Every structure is written in structure tokens, then in C-alpha cells.
Amino acid sequence: MKTNKLIAAGAMALSMAMTPVASLINAMPIAAETVSNDTNHAYKAYQIFSGTQAADETGGILGQVVWGNAVNEETIKDALNADNDFNSTQGDAAKVAAALADNNSLADKFAKIAAANLKENAPATDIAANAESVELSAGYYLLVDQATTSDQVDVKGLSLLQVTKKGDITITKKNDKPTVDKKVQDETNESGANVTDQNSEYYYNADHAIGEEFKFQLTATVPANTMDKYNTYKFQFNDTISTGVDFVFNSDLKTLKGLSIKVNNVDKTNDFSTVVEGKNLTISVDNLKYLVTNAAEETTIVVTYTAKLNADAVVTNVGADGTLGNNNKVNLVYSNNPNADGEGETGKTPDETVFVGTYKLPNNKVDQDKKPLAGAKFKLQRGTEPNAEFAVIENGKVTGWNRTGTEFTSNEDGDFSVSGLDAGTYVLIETEAPAGYNKAEPTTVVLTADHTPSTTNKTDNSKVNVTLKVKDETASNVTIVNNKGGSLPETGGMGTTLIYGAGALMAAGAAVVYVTNKRTRKD
Questions:
Q1: What count of other Cβ atoms lies within 10 Å of the Cβ of residue 509?
Q2: Per-residue pLDDT reduced to its tens digit, 19-28
Q3: Is the sign of the CA dihedral 506, 511, 512, 516 positive or negative?
Q4: pTM: predicted TM-score of the whole model, two decimal places
Q5: How far is C-alpha 464 from the chain's CA centre?
Q6: Among residues of the chain, what percentage have pLDDT more than 70?
Q7: How many other CB atoms sit within 10 Å of the CB of residue 2?
Q8: 409: buried, middle or exposed (CB in 10 Å: 19+, 13-18, 0-12)?
Q9: CB 174 within 8 A of CB 30
Q10: Which residues are CB-contacts of 448 (< 8 A; sequence separation ≥ 6)?
Q11: Is 166 exposed, middle or buried (0-12, 13-18, 19+ CB in 10 A)?
Q12: Where is this region: Disordered (predicted)?
């Protein structure tokens, strides 16, 4: 019997996230003098059918098909006769092979039946990962993935391959494993409203004030021709927010505010299990197939929920080459072995990470001699609109916004910086000057953060450049000067002269009154 080469440029990972049974057998007979492989799994190749090569020059035809040396002929015939799709073949190897031609679903099913009916200690040819070549006799082979699927992205599976003398086949990894993505809302204006109230887009990074609500979005895609290979398809989001971010709950303090779960644009929120433990959110369903109309079609699952930054949020200072410090990530756990019994085995995607920034406004209070000045009180206004809100500040950090806000005071070093701000325009309003000093005029400042938010590009999504402008001039901090108020000169000043003058006039007036009265008495 002619010997052919099966060349592995990496080991084959077949079925769902790799090349499935159907893609290798749907155009049988497949002529393959060499079979190249550019994937990264190791396999065992079990001969399911054997036969003879055609003698003509066209080649690629396998005749006189019989059961191969790895299959338990008795049990596989019983299994095929009990199956409605195969009972017409009466367990005849040639008829089964013919039935598989151009039939994806039957190829998938037959691979599972064959795997369940191998001989005990069936002979197999090992195909090592990255093996350059391996020799296989002509026939049909069941390729069984030897990968350990725990915590890996690829999907484990089975495939059938026909080895004959003519033609080349290259087996390549297909992008048919589930994917997951995470994005965060960012506002498009400086109104001060929660971002969830606006028609904002989702990006791979954003910036927000502490206490300001916004939404995260999780998006998973299960490729077409994936779930239909499984009896049940487990599906689970594992979402983690950073220490500086809080989940926002409804008034019952149990359900997530703004939670929405849509499967192919249909609301399925109540069909998923949602569990929050600390900073971890798990959203899962035991069998995603039940939630779709056609399991063979591509399926998209979109989750949104509300969150906010808290006082533990990492704050970025003014300057270049900054970092958005509050990272938030998600991964996806999904069924990845359609051949396993029951719930089966699962794989996990790599983490996808987004970043949420918040900034510090550096403020200094000095006197006319540029010396630090303590005791000046301020309020911080967000925006310049007449109905703008004021910051509620505790220990130098914003905790919220309302119509009155809270005062904050410069310390002995003159510092009255504020942390936890979004990029935007602010007005520093001095409400009370230190004793003996005049209040300064309101100062308008602008914090600008260049973090290049993108809906498509994740590269360097933690980088940010923060700039500050004070009264339209670029600055490294805000410096507000208090001048001393007016005082009475001790001697020789105009004030004393005016007082003396007034006293003299009063004395002269008294004299006039006295003289007048005296004259009146004489008259």
C-alpha cells in the first residue's frame, strides 16, 4: 500500500476553534500526497477506513473501502444502525464513507461515533507538536486532539482526514473560537451629567470624575457552526473591576443598575445567572443553545452595567507620559470539547483590559510675596454654565456634585489641590480670604487629557498626557494670589490728615454756633 506524508508545521487543533471535521471531509474524496499543518496541538491519528489507491494518473481516489485497524467493527456497526442518519448504510464501511461526502453535519456526528468505538488500546500514529512530517498509509483517519484544554483559548476536537496520493492539503487554524471584548463609556461634553444619561460611545479607555456614573460594555461572539456541534454549550463572562471602581446597585442593593444582557439583540437578562462577589462579576448560562433560534448561526452576546469611580481610584497628575491607573478586565469561559460527555470541558480566553482615568488639579495659595498662604476657602464649579454644579470634597478628593458643594481650605503650605476630576473646564471660586487679605477673582482652568480614545484600537490604551491651562495659559499648577487689604497709617498719612481736617471743621462749626447763640442772647 502506498505511503504518504502528513506534514505538521505545528500540531492540528481541529473542530470548533480550529479546523472542524466538516472542513476536511466535505469534498471527499480528498487527495493528499502531503498534508501540511500550521497549528499547535499534538494528535493521535486512528485509521477508521482503509482502502486501495486508484491506478490511474488522476489519483486521489480511495477504493475498496473497509473498516480500518483502529475501529471496533462490531460496536461501531451497532452504533450506526441505531442512528437514524446512518442506519441505511447497514454498517458497511464503503456506504458510510460515501454518505459523509459533502455533508458537514454527518461528518461531525460520525467523528464522535468513531471516537466512541475505537478498539481498546487501538493502534495510533502520534503527530507531535511542530513535527515536520509523519507517515500514514492511505485511508481515512480520525485525528484526536491531545491538548490539555484547561485555561487555553483553543478548542479541542476531532476531525476526519483522507490520505491518498495526489494533491496537497494545508490545514490551518480557523478563527472560530469565541471572542470577548470590553469597553467603557466616555462622555462627549462637559455638562456634568452622568454619562449613562448621554448617548456616549464605548471606548477602550475613558476618564471620569469620582462618583460619576458610567457604563461598561462586554461583547462576546460565538462563530457560526460552533454551538450546533455540542449537546450543551456552557458560556460565562468573568468580569473584574479595579479597587478604585464600584458596581452601582439599584435601590434593593442586590441587582446591578443598568444591567442588560442581549443575545442577538434580544433581551435575555433574566435567562442568565448574575453573581457579584466583591470586585468580581460572573454572568453565565449553562446552555447558550437554548437562547438562540439557530445554533449554527453566529451569536453575539452584549452586556452593559453601571459603575463609578470611588475614593480609592488611582489619580493621574498633570504632565506627559501619564498612565490611566484603574484597569478593568474580562475573560470568557466556554465549552471547547464537543466530544466530551455531559457539560464537557471548557476553555478560557485571554483577559481583555480597559482603563478609566481620573485627574488631579494642583492648586497653590500665596500672598503678594509668593509665600504660602493658609486659611483661604474655595469652592470648585464644574463648567461655566449658570446652573453648573459644585464639587463635594472630602480629604482633597471629589465625592460627588450638587448645587451647593462644599468649601475646602488651603493648608499651611498653601496647597488646596483637588483629586478625582474628569477632564474639562472648572472655575475656582474663593469664598473667604485669610484675615487681612482681599478675595481673589474666580479663576477658570481647563484640564485636557489626551488618551486617544478608540473604538477599535487597543494599543497603548493606558497612556495619557494631561495638560492644564489657567486663564488660557499653559501651566503646571494653579497659583492664586491674595493681596493684603487696606489699613490706617499710623502717622503722617492722608488718613490722619483727613481726620484732623474733619476735627477742625467740627471745632469751627461749634464756634459759629456759640457765637451765633451769644449774639442772639445779646439781641
A1: 10
A2: 333 233 332 3
A3: positive
A4: 0.73
A5: 18
A6: 72
A7: 12
A8: middle
A9: no
A10: 423, 466, 467, 468, 469
A11: middle
A12: 176-195
